[in-house]
Amino acid sequence: MSPIIIVVIVVALIIVIGAFMYNALVRLNQQATEAWSDITVQLKRRYDLIPNLVNTVKGYAAHEKSVFEDVTAARANALSATGVAETAKAEGDFQKTMKSLFAVAEAYPDLKASQNFQELQGEITDTEDKIQASRRFYNGVVRDFNTKRKTFPTNIFASMLGFKQDKEFFELDEAQTAAVQNPVEVKF
After folding, report:
1. Among the residues of 109-160, which ranges form H helices?
2. What is the pTM of this model?
3. Residue 11 within any structural domain of the chain
4. Phi and psi for 155 in degrees, rounded to 5?
5. Is residue 188 part of a domain?
6. I need a labelling partner for 35 at 20 to 30 A (CA). Which of 63, 106, 120, 145 fits?
7. For every residue of 146-179, which 3-state class applies, written as one string?
8. Mean per-residue pLDDT for 15-32?
């Protein structure tokens, strides 16, 4: 075999391997974008349910004004958040205020028995489950993308192919996680 044929075969092999790596990175990048879109859709759905829930609870617990204001402010902050890190921070703050709202609701047996409140609470629970599933899927795709980008031989070509940085995971920080896990104390 002549040296020119060997060089042509090696160059063609490098081009084919590069094309496979590029396509794999593009596919994972698109999956991450789609997964992030799913998260934002579910977060928006939940934020749209909150005014109905607040109004329902207000009818029973009108003197809990600060809780309603906190939920409204947290919802506004969450709706205006952009990017993964900012959204994660706003999401943690929002979850804290929602715990306070549900703690207030627990103190009113008539409210807990209300059909409207039960339906809203069911929808929010369903939405929370969808948010968690979307978040797990997004973080899985981000993990796969970041791993693919960093493993040999893709890491050699990733920067040249336009994939220069890792994607961010959607995670709550430690303070937010602790605040969400600890019960809210409501005193009357």
Report:
1. 109-113, 115-150, 154-158
2. 0.76
3. yes
4. -60, -25
5. no
6. 120
7. HHHHHCCCHHHHHCCCCCCCCCCCCCCCHHHHHH
8. 94
